[in-house]
Amino acid sequence: MAGSLPRAPSTGRIVTLVRRSPVGISVEQLASAWARQEDAPEGSTVVVAHEISGRMRLGIPWQVPPANALSCATVLRPRVRPDAEAVLWVAALVAATSATGARPGWPDLLFADDSRQIGAVNLDVHLGPGTIVSAVVSLRVDLVALGLAAGDGADSVPGRDAIVEAFTTHAVRCSALAEDQRAELLNEYAEISCLVGRPVRAKLLPRGETRATVVAVDPMGLLVLESPTGMLERLSPVTVLRLDPIP
Q1: Which CATH class is domain 18-192?
Q2: Measured by CB atoms within 10 angstroms of the end CB, which terminus of the chain is less buried, N or C?
């Protein structure tokens, strides 16, 4: 795949470039600029200790104190059609879960086993004529909610760098699955999802709400809901404000 970095043959780990900053507007902004202006190769990762304006999907502010937060973003070069962009949200969720042990919701939230929100992923796609030129996937986690003591700041948390490295490695892995082995990616998501097979409450855009049971994620990355009457409905990330499991 064009733009891919070599994998170490002995371990399968991704050889990555990492830029760290003590402060920045957001990890997406820095990683997207790196991808577009400097042609950053796949796997290039930005880590920011203090985001001035960190935002989740739909521009929702990330309000976890910097001392308790981990924020990173990885550049991908996926060969996925623009109309299948939703699959990259699934890839980001699977990568985040593999790195943190959280349970993925959809399309962006991460939960603890008791359904508390502990983080989120985000996706920034750069489109060209009929193609995705680059995609930046980001991970934001509340380290305290994840069960890690923040101490004197996020930089001091044991295992923080391991989370960043694991997210980068799995983001590249999941991007490759989205291209060539999408069924494997979707099955992996279904096995770890806190939503599949459960009733959920979906707040929709521009307004409205629905309650139904999640039955699958389809090959285009859309969430499939089944109403109590058996009617199926497919949701895309752009139509959902928030989606939560019903206890």
Answers
A1: alpha beta
A2: C
